[in-house]
Amino acid sequence: RAGLFTLFLLTLIIIGCSSQPTVRNYFILDYNPVPDNPQLILERPLPYRVQVPDTRISRIYDRSQFVFRYSPHRIEYSANDLWAVRLSSAIPDILTKHFVTYNTFAVTQRDFLIERPDFEVITFVNQIEMLRSDYYRAVHINMDMFLRRGHDLTYLVRHSFDREYEVFTDDVEIAVQNLSRIIKEETDLFIEKILYHFEVLSDENDN
User: Fold this and answer.
1) pLDDT tens-place string over residues 112-150
2) Other CB atoms closer than 10 Å to residue 31's CB: what's the count?
3) Distance separating alpha carbons of residues 199 and 179, to the nearest angstrom
4) What dihedral do alpha carbons 204, 187, 33, 48 form, nearest 10°?
5) Three-class SS state of 137
6) Within 10 A of 121 (CB to CB), how many other CB atoms are there?
């Protein structure tokens, strides 16, 4: 009996060692900032230095794991679907690229080591997740964007959105693609508000 028990244990060890390793998937928010509205691209940028610091992420979502929400009271952190770059860095990185591509400001950078920026783009992510239920799959993002004046920290332009988009799949890559697309579309709207604030655009441009 002792020999049979030892053989049984060895069999379990061999089976355990031969099992497939866990595969982890890494994702990043990114997009190509091609404008739907060519009026948003400036020939002459606004003559300001603008800093885009790290995004402030709600504590529930400020981690490397992708978040699935099953109900208002239940979420799950995915063990195998991970952000390759923390959201607090990935989001301001793509926003900086967006402003530079559109030539919105004379200088747009993530950091200023010596000079003080004229303005800051302040961002908050309140929710970013994939919604899952028996018959529904969607991505959801709730976010605030602000243009803040540097010397007195006055908020001049605000753009907030809370969007949900059905995806009809459990594929996290499709979810991330759609989250990236939503951020791109909403950043376009934010830039449009900025241009109206500085009177680069006016209601006459819409006619």
Assistant:
1) 988 889 999 999 999 999 999 999 999 999 999 999 999
2) 17
3) 30
4) 70
5) strand
6) 26
CA angle 128/95/114 to nearest 5° reads 125
Question: pLDDT tens digits, residue range 51-60?
Answer: 999 999 999 9
Task: HSE, CB side, 13 Å, CA atoms: give it for residue 19.
Answer: 9
Residue with tokens 């499709």: 174
Q: 81: closest CA among 151, 25, 159?
A: 25
- Quote the Cα angle for 88-148-63, to 5°: 10
pTM for this structure?
0.87
> How does DSSP classify residue 115?
S
CA dihedral defined by 21, 90, 126, 68, rounded to 10 degrees? Answer: -20
The full length of the chain comes to: 207
- The CB density around residue 80, as the number of other CB atoms within 10 Å, is 12
**Can you read off the two tokens belonging to residue 27?**
């994702």
